[in-house]
Amino acid sequence: MVTLVSVAAFSSAAWAGFDSWTAEVENDPFSGGQRVTVGITTSMRSGVVIFCDTSEKGLTVRAIPGFAFESGMTGFAPEMEFAIDGERLLGQSGETGAVGDNIAVSEVKLSPENAKRFMDAFAAAKKQIAIKDGISDRPHLMPARGTTKSGQALLGCMGKQAP
Predict the structure, then answer these.
(1) Confidence label for 12 from pLDDT (cuts 50, 70 and 90)
(2) CATH code (residue 155)
C-alpha cells in the first residue's frame, strides 16, 4: 500500500510539472507575435514564469513566492537578482503586484542585454536557477531540470524579436 501511495505521489508531482521547467509556444492574436511561456511550479502557490513575445523586446520574469499581496507592497520596486549554477549574473529593479487569488508577485522586464545574458546561462544551466525576488525573506532555488529545452524555446523567441 505504501508503495502505491508513493508511486501516485511522485507521478502526480511529475505530471503537474513540479520542480521542472516547461515551455509552451503559442501565437498571440493580440500582439501579432509568437508567445513563449516558460515556468516552474515549486509549490501549490509558488513558482517562476518567464514570458517572451516576438513582437516585444527582452523578457519578463515573474516570481511568485506564494504569500498574499498586501496593500503596503503597492508601488514597491524590488531589486530582483539572478544566479545560475552558483554564479550571480545580474540584478534589475522590478515591480510588485498580485496574480490569481491575490498572491503577491515580483516582476521585472529584463532589458534585451540582460535578457540575452540570462537566457544564455539559463539554457546552459546544469544544477540550479536562483532568483531573489526582492519581496521574500529567501530566494527561489530551483533545479535546472528542463532548462535546456525551455531555454532554447526562449532563445528562439528572442532571436525573432526586432533589433
Answers:
(1) very low
(2) 2.60.40.1880
Q: Give the list of residues 6+ apart from residue 150 with CB closer than 8 angstroms, or none.
A: 21, 22, 23, 38, 122, 123
DSSP lists the bridge partners of residue 35 as 26, 53
Can you tell me the distance from the alpha carbon of 83 to that of 72, in angstroms, rounded to the nearest whole number? 28
Q: Are 103 and 142 in contact (CB under 8 A)?
A: no
Domain hosting residue 47, numbered range: 2-159
For the chain, the domain total comes to 1
Q: What is the pLDDT of residues 65-121, one digit of tens each?
A: 999 999 999 999 999 999 999 999 999 999 999 999 999 999 999 998 999 999 999
